[in-house]
Amino acid sequence: MHFLKLLPVAAIFMLLSLPVFAQQHQQMNSSQSQKIEGIPKGWNVRFDHASADGSDVEFTVNNGVLHFNADAKGAAIYYKPEMRASGSFSVNGTFSQLEKTHHPEAYGLFIGGNNLQKDNQQYLYFLIHQGGKFLIKRRTGDHTETIVDWKASDAVHALGNASSVTNKLEIKRTNDAVTFWANGQQVKRIPASQLKYLDGIAGLRINHHLNVKVTGFKLDK
């Protein structure tokens, strides 16, 4: 108290306000990823790279067509918080890869998203790449668990020597199972009892170095 008596009033006010300023700064940091400049209104993004920002991806929405053009740090998930489902539902979209990448880069759908802006984020995702293969994984925080490793399927259209390739992807959940579909063909069925993170937000995952358009992205409950 003797120390405080020797300080000017303004200095005392600053000292007493530090905890408040620190709390406000922490709150701003925790929501910063939800207000990234350049991301269309209503959409949220979570980049894999902590240093990434809106300049690492061109994301536009035009008449329901979503266009993603991501650079080296642009791997991310994209979602609308209101696209949340439980019980039986289906999420689907048609993906067009517009350029071939040097290495096969993945893109697709996720379900069961929770805590998506926190350290304990979690979701289940279904991806494909230009080589005609699909992958199913689960993310918990920074840890990912492979459920189905990269597997070739005739149902997934490969890019080959073409300049672009289009695939319609879908995840269906019922009380009994979760099924994964490519171009109208089921590529995997997994009993629901063997999976976690089925209830939650549905969204998109687009890795880096990709130029991809998505049409018809929707959640049917």
In CATH terms, what is the architecture of the largest domain? Sandwich
CATH class of the largest domain: Mainly Beta
Mind telling me the CATH superfamily name of the largest domain?
Answer: Exo-inulinase, domain 1
Report the CATH topology name of the largest domain: Jelly Rolls
Q: What level of helicity do the residues show?
A: 10-25%
Count the domains.
2
> Strand-and-helix sequence, N→C?
HHEEEEEEEEEEEEEE
- Poorly predicted sequence stretches spanning 5 or more consecutive residues: 9-34
By DSSP (H or I, 4+ residues per run), the number of helices equals: 2
> Distance between the terminal alpha carbons, to the nearest Å?
62 Å
Query: What is the mean pLDDT?
Result: 88
Order of the strands making up the biggest sheet: 1-4-13-6-7-8-9
Main sheet record = 7 strands, antiparallel
Look at the helices and sheets and give the structural class. Answer: mainly beta
Beta strand %: over 45%
Global geometry: globular
Radius of gyration: 21 Å
Q: Main traits of this protein?
A:
seven-stranded antiparallel sheet, globular, 2 domains, single chain, mainly beta, 14 strands, Jelly Rolls, 221 residues
